[in-house]
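Example noted here:
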Amino acid sequence: MTSTEIMVIVGGLLLGYWIVGNLINRKPDSSSGSSVGENTARGAQQNSSHQEDPSNEKPREEDYILANWFRILEVSEDASQEQIVAAYKQKIRQYHPDKVAQMGAEIRELAEFKSKQINTAYDYAMKLRQ
């Protein structure tokens, strides 16, 4: 192998390393809105803009959960208490934040959000069944 070939190989490796490094560290485009982290960030911005009037922030999310508790738990509206408990256990195992703690901040935030929804839906379903 000649010194020219070695220099071309090293140059190609450095160029490839630089390109991959820039792609990984690149900031996401704010117009796309397809990333979980962006959606979470936007949700945080929207929530912070509603801080002046707390009545706008929480009831919307909680009203959605209370109206759709059976969809969140993936059971029928007339599911028995045992079916609800089983669905809750299965969903919380899937979305518990401790289970995905090593997977990154965006996944952990999504898991926390989903587990809060699941817990709220479960609590409401149990109140309906009592």
